[in-house]
Amino acid sequence: MNRKTILILIMILLINISLIGCNRESDIESEESSNNSDTFKVGLEAGYPPFNWTQIDSSNGAVKISDNSEYAGGYDVEIAKKIAEGLGKELEIVKLEWDGLLPALTSNKIDAIIAGMSPTKERMETIDFSNNYYKSDLVMIVKKGSKYEGAASINDFKGAKVTAQLNTFHYSVIDQIDGVIKDVAMDNFPAMRVALQSEMIDGYVSERPEGVSAIAANDNFAMVEFQEGFNTLDDDTAIAVGLKKESDLREEINEILKGISDKERQDIMNKAIKNQPTLQE
Fold first, then answer.
1. % of the chain exceeding 90 in pLDDT
2. Which long-range contacts (C-beta less than 8 Å, at least 24 apart) are formed by 266-274?
3. Global pTM?
């Protein structure tokens, strides 16, 4: 290897080291700008009423969605507004697909996930969570008048075609039903409502607030609340704010949530159920 070749290799090596340093500085600046920004960026689906939904105007306190002509409303949005106010920041809603929420958070595209998300053990391997801001029970949504409407136990759904949302624990608990026909998981709740209405499925697993929302939006639906229900962990049916690992916001957000009483949280949920758009059937 001649002297000229060695010099060229050294120059290439120095350039690569310089680029790596620049990328690292860029990542640090991105994280610092997210923490120091006057904006609190919250990711959600805007498709899971009464927790969050999409609407065409700002009625009932809805917040405009970033880079979108539509607005987001619902329980999660109201909680996000209170947190943003407590942080002294302006709330920005970022509408994302469910599977895109965690990647957006870990890549600093959003500051938090407030999207009816449960702090499951699997998710806690990737992100941190605040204290819980809501807790609910699992129910089954069925067609009114079907043979499953009067079910008391999950095993009354033996032979039924049942589904739930993709990449949620709702879908995994279907395995607890003996003899169930576990249908393919669906992307969102509006899709499940359409599938149920058209009798492509016999029922779908949901949390109680979404169930109340579904039967309020469609007179043909009924909600089954079990006497002998699914076996779940407390965190499976709780909902919390998703945050980056070791986020500086966690302690502040927990303090803000502590100031929202159980009664106020239930009042917010009741209003969300009342205000949800009927179009989200």
1. 78
2. 268/75, 268/78, 268/79, 269/50, 269/75, 269/134, 269/209, 271/60, 271/78, 272/49, 272/50, 272/51, 272/73, 272/74, 272/75, 272/78, 272/209, 273/50, 273/209, 273/212, 273/213, 273/216
3. 0.75
